[in-house]
Amino acid sequence: MSGSAPTPLLLASTSPQRRAILGQLGIPFDVARPRYDEKDAPGADPIELVRRHALGKASSLVGEAADRPLLGVDTAVLLDERVFGKPADVGEARAMLTRLSGRTHEVVSGLCLIGPGWEELEHEITRVTFRELSAGEIDAYLVTDEWRGRAGAYAVQGLGARHVARIDGDYLNVVGLPAALLVSILARRYPGLYGLG
Length: 197
What we know:
The chain has six helices and seven strands, in the order E-H-E-H-E-E-H-E-E-H-E-H-H.
C-alpha cells in the first residue's frame, strides 16, 4: 500500500481537539457529525461505556464511509470510579475541580476504527495528577470559561495545564484522542499508507 494516496479517515466527531490532533499527526481526515445518542446506563462500567459510545459514533456513519476508515472516540474522566462528564454549570465545574485537586484521576478513551470488513475497538487510560488547588485558583480558572464543554471541567491543552503536577501515559489522550493507540492500529491495518508501519 505504500504507493497509494492516503485515504482520508472519516472522523465521527465535531470536536476541535480531535481535529487538531489528527492534523498534528499528519493524518488526512474529513469530519461528520455522528448520528448517535449518548446515553449512560446507571452503574455501567466506565470503560465499557466509552467503548460502547466510540463504537456507536463510528457505526452511525457506516453508510457514509464508502471504503474509507471510520473513527469514533469517546472520553471520560474518572475519580473514585465516578465519571466526571461535562459540567452543566459553574457550580458543578467548581465541585469537579475541588474533588480533582491534589488527586490522581484517570482519563479513559474508547476508540473504534471501522474499515472494509473489519472493526477495531480498544481503549486507553492516562493517569493525571492535579496539584493542590486553592479556592482562589479554582475561581480564577472558572472565570475564563475554559471549563465549558470539557469532561472533568478542565482543558489540559489550555490554562488547565496549570492544575497538572504529573501525567502518566498518552498526553494527547487527555486532550481528546488516544493518538498512540490510533497510530498503532493504522500502522498495522494500513502499513505504509499514512507514513506509518
